[in-house]
Write a structure and sequence with these properties.
By secondary structure, this protein is α+β, with helices and mostly antiparallel strands. It has one domain: Glutaredoxin. It has nine helices and four strands. Strands 2-1-3-4 form a four-stranded mixed sheet, sandwiched between helices. The protein is globular and about 45 Å long. The chain starts with 5 loop residues before the first helix and ends with a helix.
């Protein structure tokens, strides 16, 4: 596997951010795919179309549901440094709607955080640059200092509590089942984005 030096990685991410979509543009893209019963990604299987249709509804709901707390608002408004956040996702990715909505809301309350979105399969260079172990799981959020380009943090693809449940399930059953994916959605809905917000705020 090709190992990039930190400056190369910064450059790759910065370039991707400049060419990326806004959250609103990404929303429209997912809507269009849902309406035409297609999906983003290279040769998406039929199931990805169903996930895309579901995600389009989830995105709408999450944009309404997630409420940012006052403490987080205050922290975001007093950030000493401005950040770019590059989100890597695909329309079919079930973990993406909650975290995308949280980061978008964060970016709405402060000028010190700007969110842009890129698609994984069209940006494998970015994915390979940030992947430690060759894993390509999404969504990923790359938080980068606007002025220096320094990468502050990479978050994803889900909050630690849920990731632990995910890993334990996979260990025990050998694969992630549709039933478990349902359980994950229930977890997100119950949590209302609080864990995602808590983890992300901590990184800024």
């Amino acid at each position: 596997m090709h190992h990039h030096n930190p400056l190369e990685v910064q450059e790759i991410i910065s370039t991707a951010f400049q060419e990326a979509m806004t959250y609103a543009e990404y929303h429209v893209l997912v809507e269009n795919h849902a309406q035409t019963l297609t999906s983003t990604g290279h040769n998406p299987p039929e199931s990805y179309v169903q996930y895309t249709v579901l995600n389009e509804r989830r995105m709408k709901r999450w944009d309404k549901v997630f409420k940012i707390n006052e403490e987080h608002k205050a922290k975001l408004r007093s950030l000493p440094v401005a950040y770019n956040c590059t989100a890597i996702t695909e329309s079919w990715c079930g973990d993406a709607p909650p975290s995308m909505a949280v980061v978008n809301r964060f970016a709405e309350v402060t000028d010190n955080l700007e969110l842009r979105v890129i698609l994984r399969d069209e940006n494998m260079e970015v994915m390979n640059a940030i992947s430690i172990d060759g894993k390509l799981s999404i969504p990923k959020f790359i938080i980068q200092e606007k002025s220096s380009g320094t990468i502050r943090a990479i978050w994803g693809s889900r909050p630690k509590i849920l990731q632990d449940m995910f890993d334990a399930f996979k260990e025990e059953h050998g694969a992630i089942t549709p039933q478990f994916r349902e359980e994950m959605q229930k977890w997100y809905n119950k949590d209302k984005g609080k864990e995602i917000a808590r983890e992300l705020i901590h990184l800024l």
